[in-house]
């Protein structure tokens, strides 16, 4: 990202000698035109994708959100009815509640763990590459159906967790089948994938100039002092980056909740993530209009939190120079 | 080693340092084991009889049961290699699509001047953040009208159309780091943009292309949401969708085979992880996406 910001435009070529100026200028615009044409050629697939796959559908879903449409037959424009239905849709409200709890509990835990381990690993531990790989592995696998299946067993009534608890004489509940615990198992799953932000923190810690620590050591600052006054401020851009990214990701979690609850979002809607409810409405009940309205609400929520994040960052993110 | 005069003074400190380092390692290893234990246990349990999976928290499959694999392989409507092959086709198509579509767009953004470049680049960056859930309904309607539901086109064609902005960004970053002298020299020799792109930029961009291929492999292999929506006929199921029907249909008695097939599903990702670690870690560290 920094390379992107640092690289300015190239300096203009030195002025051509006066005599040939007009001709080179003419040739220059010809060349520029050709270059523009070539650029649009290279971008042709991307333009098509923008129209058909990303931006086009984005606008189309805004339109569909004002319609009643079940895929068969025509759609009917119904104004704000879909949005009005949202106001008293109890399942939507519980989906929002579940998703917010998930995002705002799991993301801070995940980032705290990632930062803590990055700091331990950054102190010149031997075998760093191996530890990093081991801790990173769950991030690659965490979103898969297979891991969600594993989770369903591990936190089941007779699952691994309860087998281990039984060794200590504790009788655990059926975690995934109890409305009070099911969401926590998914939070644990997200925290388990702390490896990706950890790798980013590690790269960030490398950037903190050693001289700051040396100067602090000379002044007799202890480890807590050094963490609060050097490491933390220097890392704020990376913390911010991880925070934005992980919040956006967490809002879109789908697979884990779908598999663990068998597609229902149960027990008693306790794992009904927003995207899962959207799927049920759109592709279970074929309420395409309502699903589109939900999609736009999701976009507003994610966009809103990202914007708030950026605004708030002015007060706590510290850009060194 | 320390000289004689300093040795006595240093020894105790060195010893306590070594002790601390040892403790750090013990802590890190213990934590790593706790993290990986469920995975190891899953692999071991895929060789246990199902009744033991629900009783035996240990890692050793005392009653070695490789039959889980043969049983799981044939438990669904089609043999499991049918789904593996489907997944391989989707993944292969996605990799080729991303390599072609994204590298073309990246060349334009990194090397060419054109009207509206800044705006279009900003739009491209914005699409990285666009949740698929927001566009899935119109996409579905479009693909249904093209009669593409239950084909692999809805999963592959968007990649060819460079809709994975993240990879465009990754390649733009990489191409900007390549020296321009090479393209200038080629241009003086009369090379057009197509040849500069094919002969100079692409060969030099191998590391970025490799990172793109590896991430595309892992993400597409694991992807569930879009495959669940676009593939509803059992003969078109990919591995994740097949696993989902397996878990829905299975009672407690078939967890052994279910675990076995889950291990099969994770295998390729694990293989790519081992082979492509260098690119993965570098990719995450420079771009920050998991």
Topology:
The complex is a heterodimer of chains A (321) and B (290).
Chain A: H1 2-6, H2 21-52, H3 55-64, E1 67-68, E2 76-77, H4 81-87, H5 90-122, H6 128-141, H7 145-154, H8 160-167, H9 182-192, H10 195-206, H11 210-218, H12 223-251, H13 255-260, H14 274-284, H15 288-316
Antiparallel strand pairs in A: 1-2
Helix pairs in contact in A: 3-15, 5-9, 5-10, 5-12, 6-10, 10-12, 12-15, 14-15
Chain B: H1 7-45, H2 50-53, H3 67-73, H4 80-111, H5 117-128, H6 132-145, H7 153-160, H8 165-176, H9 181-188, H10 193-204, H11 206-222, H12 225-230, H13 239-249, H14 255-287
Helix pairs in contact in B: 3-14, 4-7, 4-8, 4-11, 5-8, 9-10, 11-14, 13-14
Any idea of the CATH class of chain A?
A: Mainly Alpha
CATH superfamily label of the domain at 76-102 and 129-169 and 206-249 in chain B: MetI-like
> Uncertain spans of chain A, ≥5 residues at pLDDT below 50?
1-23
Order of helices and strands of chain A: HHHEEHHHHHHHHHHHH
By DSSP, the count of extended strands of chain A is 2
Biggest sheet statistics of chain A: 2 strands, antiparallel
Oligomer: heterodimer
Here the CATH topology of the domain at 76-102 and 129-169 and 206-249 in chain B equals MetI-like fold
Number of domains of chain A: 1
Number of strands of chain B: 0
Number of helices of chain A: 15
Q: Share of helix among residues of chain A?
A: over 70%
In CATH, the architecture of chain A is Orthogonal Bundle
CATH-level-4 superfamily name of chain A:
MetI-like
Backbone structural class of chain B: mainly alpha
Stretches of chain B where pLDDT is under 50 for at least 5 consecutive residues are 1-7
Strand content of chain B: under 5%
Strand arrangement in the largest pleated sheet of chain A: 1-2
Membrane topology (chain A): Multi-pass membrane protein
Keywords (chain A): Cell membrane, Membrane, Sugar transport, Transmembrane, Transmembrane helix, Transport
Subcellular location (chain A): Cell membrane
Domain ABC transmembrane type-1 (chain A): 96-309
């Amino acid at each position: 990202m920094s390379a992107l910001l640092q690289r300015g435009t190239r300096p203009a070529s030195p002025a051509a000698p006066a005599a040939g100026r007009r001709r080179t200028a003419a040739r220059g615009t010809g060349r520029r035109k050709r270059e523009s044409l070539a650029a649009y050629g290279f971008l042709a697939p991307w333009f098509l994708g923008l129209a058909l796959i990303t931006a086009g559908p984005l606008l189309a879903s805004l339109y569909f959100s004002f319609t009643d449409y079940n895929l068969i037959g025509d759609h009917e424009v119904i104004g704000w009815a879909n949005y009005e239905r949202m106001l008293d849709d109890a399942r939507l409200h519980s989906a929002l509640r579940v998703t917010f709890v998930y995002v705002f509990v799991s993301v801070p835990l995940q980032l705290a763990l990632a930062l803590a381990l990055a700091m331990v690993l950054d102190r010149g531990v031997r075998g760093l590459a191996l530890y990093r790989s081991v801790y990173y592995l769950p991030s690659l696998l965490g979103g898969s159906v297979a891991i969600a299946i594993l989770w369903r067993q591990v936190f089941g009534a007779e699952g691994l967790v309860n087998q281990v608890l039984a060794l200590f004489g504790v009788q655990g509940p059926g975690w995934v089948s109890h409305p009070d615990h099911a969401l926590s198992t998914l939070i644990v799953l997200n925290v388990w994938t702390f490896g990706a932000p950890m790798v980013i923190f590690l790269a960030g810690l490398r950037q903190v100039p050693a001289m700051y620590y040396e100067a602090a050591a000379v002044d007799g600052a202890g480890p807590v002092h050094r963490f609060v006054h050097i490491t933390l401020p220097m890392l704020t851009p990376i913390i911010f980056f991880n925070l934005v990214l992980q919040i956006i990701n967490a809002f879109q979690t789908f697979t884990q909740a779908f598999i663990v609850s068998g597609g229902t979002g149960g027990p008693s809607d306790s794992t009904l993530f927003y995207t899962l409810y959207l799927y049920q409405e759109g592709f279970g009940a074929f309420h395409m209009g309502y699903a589109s309205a939900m999609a736009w609400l999701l976009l507003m929520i994610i966009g809103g939190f990202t914007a708030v994040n950026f605004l708030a960052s002015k007060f706590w993110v510290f850009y060194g120079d | 080693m320390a000289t004689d005069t300093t040795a006595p003074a240093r020894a105790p400190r060195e010893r306590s340092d070594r002790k601390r380092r040892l403790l750090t390692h013990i802590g890190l290893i213990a934590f790593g084991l706790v993290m990986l234990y469920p995975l190891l246990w899953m692999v071991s349990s895929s060789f246990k009889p199902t009744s033991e999976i629900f009783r035996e928290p240990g890692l050793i499959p005392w009653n070695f049961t490789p039959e889980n694999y043969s049983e799981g392989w044939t438990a669904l409507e089609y043999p499991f290699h049918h789904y593996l092959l489907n997944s391989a086709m989707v993944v292969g198509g996605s990799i080729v699509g991303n390599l072609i579509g994204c590298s073309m767009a990246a060349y334009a953004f990194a090397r060419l001047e054109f009207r509206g470049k800044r705006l279009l680049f900003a739009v491209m960056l914005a699409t990285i953040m666009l949740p698929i859930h927001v566009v899935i309904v119109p996409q579905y309607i479009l693909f249904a009208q093209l009669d593409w539901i239950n084909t692999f086109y809805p999963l592959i064609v968007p990649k060819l159309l460079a809709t994975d902005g993240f990879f465009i960004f990754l390649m733009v970053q990489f191409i900007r780091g390549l020296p321009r002298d090479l393209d200038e020299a080629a241009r003086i020799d009369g090379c057009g943009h197509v040849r500069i792109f094919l002969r100079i930029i692409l060969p030099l961009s191998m590391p970025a292309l490799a990172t793109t291929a590896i991430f595309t492999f892992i993400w597409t292999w694991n992807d569930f949401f879009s495959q669940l929506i676009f593939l509803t006929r059992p003969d078109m199921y990919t591995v994740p969708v097949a696993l989902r029907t397996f878990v829905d249909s299975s009672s407690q008695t078939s967890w052994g085979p279910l675990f076995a097939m889950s291990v099969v599903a994770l295998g390729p990702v694990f293989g790519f992880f081992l082979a492509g670690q260098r690119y993965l870690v570098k990719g995450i560290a420079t771009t920050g996406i998991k």
